[in-house]
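F.,

This is the one I mentioned.
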């Protein structure tokens, strides 16, 4: 069963991980375009669900998101 789940997970895209670095770079791209950064916008840009963003974002990145949104 473990081998089967491993194969299924790799086929549906579990190998593509959303890292804090990818989230931060996406946040900078959104900010450079002058658009407010939202979890939904990040999720659409990275091709994942907003829940995935919430799971992988740190407190520091949340604070950075707030700072970047205030500058707009």
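My design for it:
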């Amino acid at each position: 069963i473990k081998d089967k789940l491993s194969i299924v997970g790799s086929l549906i895209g579990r190998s593509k991980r959303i890292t804090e670095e990818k989230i931060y770079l996406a946040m900078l791209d959104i900010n450079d375009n002058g658009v407010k950064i939202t979890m939904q916008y990040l999720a659409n840009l990275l091709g994942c669900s907003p829940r995935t963003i919430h799971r992988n974002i740190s407190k520091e990145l949340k604070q950075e998101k707030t700072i970047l949104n205030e500058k707009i």
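The CA atoms of residues 18 and 47 lie 9 Å apart.

Talk soon.
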